[in-house]
Amino acid sequence: MRLDFTPEQEAFRAEVRTWLDAQLSGEFAHIREIQGISEGAEQRFPWERHLGRAGWNQLSWPKAFGGREANLFEQVIFHEEYARSGAPGRLSHVGLELVAPTIMAFGNDEQRQRFLKPTAEVEIIWAQLFSEPNAGSDLANVQTRARLEDRPGGQVWVLEGQKIWSSFAQYSQWGMALVRTEPGSVGSKGLSMLLIPLDAKGVDIRPIRQMSGGSSFNEVFLDGAETAAANVLGAAGEGWKVAMGTLTFERGVSTLGQQMGFRNELDHILRVAKENGAARNPGIAKRLARAQAELRTMRYTALRMLGGSGLSLAGLTYKLYYTSWHQRLGELAMDVLGPAGEIAVPGSDAYRLQKMYLESRSDSIWAGTSQIQRNIIAERGLGLPREGKAAR
Amino acid sequence: MSFIFTDEQTMLLDAATRLVEENGGSAAVRAAGASDRGYDAAVWQQMVEMGWSAIVVPEAQGGLGLGQVELSIVAAAAGRALLPSPLLSTAIAARALVLAGTPAQQDRWLPQIAAGELTATVALTGVEGCYRPGDVAATLRTDGDGYRLDGSAGFVLDGHDAGLIIVAAKLDGEIRFVAVPRGEAGLSAERLPWLDITRAAARLGFDNVTVPADAVMAGGRFADVLAFANATLAAEQMGAAAAALDITVDYAKQRVQFGQPIGAFQAVKHALADLALLVEAATSAVWYAAACADQRPEEFAEAAATAKLMASDAIVKCSADMIHYHGGIGYTWEHDAHLYFRRGRTSASLFGDADAQTKIIADAIGLGAETNDAA
């Protein structure tokens, strides 16, 4: 059990930090000003392309796909340094963290050749098209249909249905869609994972305005949208297996970087609490100390999870732990601000913390609600039985 | 950076788990706790033979010179079964000698501790059981070439039985540790009727006890000794919490109501999932603190407080829910759930409760001045 990084790892950290500092004090200095999940897209994409051309987006990928084959600790270091630099989170997250690993795991050589490099360089921005109005937590209830039809150029999949909660679909050129390809099939059988162009006819993308004011989610209507027959990931009919693979990528190394973001948020709240005197309130001080203790604990849970092999109980508990923590942090932020925090102009401390307070309410919903997480922890982690048929 | 045990640590864990499984069990644990000593001397002898009394004693004094990770490994194993022994008290006393003792004091006591010839403990607070420096209720005064010790101490683990007591006492307003051997004139010890029935604690009285000058240690290490005590206790709590959860999960798989195991119902499985979160958090915090003790002394105070906070949360909640999800049987004397529940409460207070730990963390993040009202 060693806490320190090796000299080689520290040298890598210095390389990352030097590069980021140079970029963020030069051409991309303005990028640090951007706050919130979905703001400033027109400035963020050039920055993300820049990262991709420099090789940072594909750090961990195999060399064959243009990556650097960085080991786990180098990835941790990169994500920590990135978050520390103050640069905003990635709009290309879906492509880099979800779609690309899925293509590597389930795609054929042709698909890898075609999609991976442009994904790394953010020339293709991806949307994840899994959820539907009636397939949220119960994802296997997907109803969007796709059927093969003949066209002069060859067979195509023709899609009919509606997807929802698709992050950044309004900026995306491609989508990875879980659809029903066997007519009359039910549940997890008869599904396929299709890669579909979103700038084609029959695709209508409508941003959803969220309770925080921003729009990172979209509804995507598919009304006769087409994609080539070859654009199926894995075998037709094996979409569920592919989707489950994708969902395991949702809790990867980038969680460490996300924790540095949490660190920045907690430091911000601590600063405000010291400045406005809230820290003199013993109840507030105790909650701040607890938030600090839990954030530290989270970091070591993440490192235990990433350092171990296979699916650990630590890994299964991680999402529920950090989302609960983050929602409590939002509440603590508002208590630190007091009623004055309810009045906010853009750019102020109160505005940033208000936004965090509002946005944190989505944490317990996306990527498997807290109730789904508890089912997973109990059934896969603790080995408890599934609920009987009679009760379903 | 690495978060896995070395091969040697894994072997130690396996051996510790075996020893505890062979000697634990409800009847043995209850009998040992109820005995005059508060533990089974034969079990302690086995631990000594495995080297546990020597773990934190430097090699120069006949010990193994190992670290907090190794100590936490055996403490966690013992904690799983609530196996009574003077392991915790003796290890903390050895730590105090290593941290604050003079070379002569270390040479006198540590070899005996390492060899298992001497058990030891620490008396860190008064009879109220709080751990602010102001709560120390023993005082030293000069008397000729030496000193005299007066006052009292509470919640002294194995205090009625230990061969050596490292007493925190005030000398001119500063806390100094003093080594007081069992049987010294003026030293009285009375085992307390404690909520925890698988571990012994005593109240000590000091009535004009003679303390030679060479029995007094350097000052300034009170908080350090408390941090080591909490890091070790947290490992034990984490082991106990994990066991409480495991036992409850097993029961939820076996117990059938409404035609299915109760663990299939979401009302039950979600509650057990929440306990798993607490156990995993405690596990992370405990090993982080142990690694800090050995590798990052500057982070250790906060890490130990964090471990104690997380592990207390885990054992308190897991043991309470252990009672609840066992239903009526969990509320009986025969079931072990109450043993874990009792340990949860007493261990959470011992060496400083949640308020005391959050105070340490608040200090570390620069909120110290603001929380002075808690001192």
Write the layout of secondary structure elements.
The complex is a heterodimer of chains A (392) and B (375).
Chain A: H1 7-24, H2 41-53, H3 72-85, H4 93-106, H5 109-120, E1 126-129, E2 145-151, E3 154-164, E4 174-180, E5 191-197, E6 203-208, E7 217-228, E8 232-233, H6 239-248, H7 254-276, H8 282-307, H9 313-337, H10 349-359, H11 370-381
Parallel strand pairs in A: 1-4
Antiparallel strand pairs in A: 2-3, 3-7, 4-5, 5-8, 6-7
Chain B: H1 7-23, H2 26-34, H3 41-49, H4 68-81, H5 87-100, H6 103-114, E1 120-123, E2 138-143, E3 146-157, E4 164-171, E5 174-181, E6 187-191, E7 201-211, E8 216-219, H7 222-254, E9 256-257, E10 260-261, H8 266-295, H9 297-325, H10 337-349, H11 354-364
Parallel strand pairs in B: 1-4
Antiparallel strand pairs in B: 2-3, 3-7, 4-5, 5-8, 6-7, 9-10
Helix pairs in contact in B: 1-4, 4-7, 5-6, 5-7, 7-8, 7-9, 7-10, 8-9, 9-10, 9-11
The gist of it:
Chain A: This is Acyl-CoA dehydrogenase. With 392 residues, chain A is an alpha+beta fold. Chain A is built from 11 helices and 8 strands.
How would you describe this structure to a colleague?
The complex is a heterodimer of chains A (392) and B (375). Chain A has 392 residues and is of the alpha+beta class. The radius of gyration of chain A is 22 Å and the shape is globular. Chain A is built from eleven helices and eight strands. Chain A folds into three domains: 7-91, Butyryl-Coa Dehydrogenase, subunit A, domain 1 (Orthogonal Bundle); 126-237, Butyryl-CoA Dehydrogenase, subunit A, domain 2, CATH 2.40.110.10; 252-391, Up-down Bundle (Butyryl-CoA Dehydrogenase, subunit A, domain 3), CATH 1.20.140.10. Chain A has a four-stranded mixed β-sheet with strand order 1-4-5-8. In chain A, strands 2-3-7-6 form a four-stranded antiparallel β-sheet, with no helix packed on it. In chain A, helix 3 (72-85) packs parallel to helix 7 (254-276) and helix 7 (254-276) runs antiparallel to helix 8. The termini of chain A are far apart. With 375 residues, chain B is α+β, with helices and mostly antiparallel strands. Chain B has three domains: 7-119, Acyl-CoA dehydrogenase/oxidase, N-terminal domain (Butyryl-Coa Dehydrogenase, subunit A, domain 1), CATH 1.10.540.10; 121-218, Butyryl-CoA Dehydrogenase, subunit A, domain 2 (Beta Barrel); 222-374, Butyryl-CoA Dehydrogenase, subunit A, domain 3 (Up-down Bundle), CATH 1.20.140. Chain B is 51% helix and 17% strand. Chain B has helices spanning 7-23, 26-34, 41-49, 68-81, 87-100, 103-114, 222-254, 266-295, 297-325, 337-349, 354-364, and strands at 120-123, 138-143, 146-157, 164-171, 174-181, 187-191, 201-211, 216-219, 256-257, 260-261. In chain B, the strands form three sheets. A four-stranded mixed β-sheet of chain B has the order 1-4-5-8, with helices on one face. A four-stranded antiparallel β-sheet of chain B has the order 2-3-7-6, with no helix packed on it. In chain B, strand 9 (256-257) and strand 10 (260-261) form a beta hairpin. The longest helix of chain B is centred in the middle third of the chain and has 33 residues, at 222-254. Chain B is globular. Classes of the chains: A alpha+beta (392), B alpha+beta (375). At the A-B interface, helix 7, helix 8, helix 9 and helix 11 of A face helix 7, strand 10, helix 8, helix 9 and helix 11 of B. Chain A: Its cofactor is FAD. Chain A: Residues 237-381 form the Acyl-CoA dehydrogenase/oxidase C-terminal domain. Chain A: Keywords: FAD, Flavoprotein, Oxidoreductase. Chain A: This is Acyl-CoA dehydrogenase. Chain A: Residues 129-214 form the Acyl-CoA oxidase/dehydrogenase middle domain. Chain B: Residues 6-117 form the Acyl-CoA dehydrogenase/oxidase N-terminal domain.
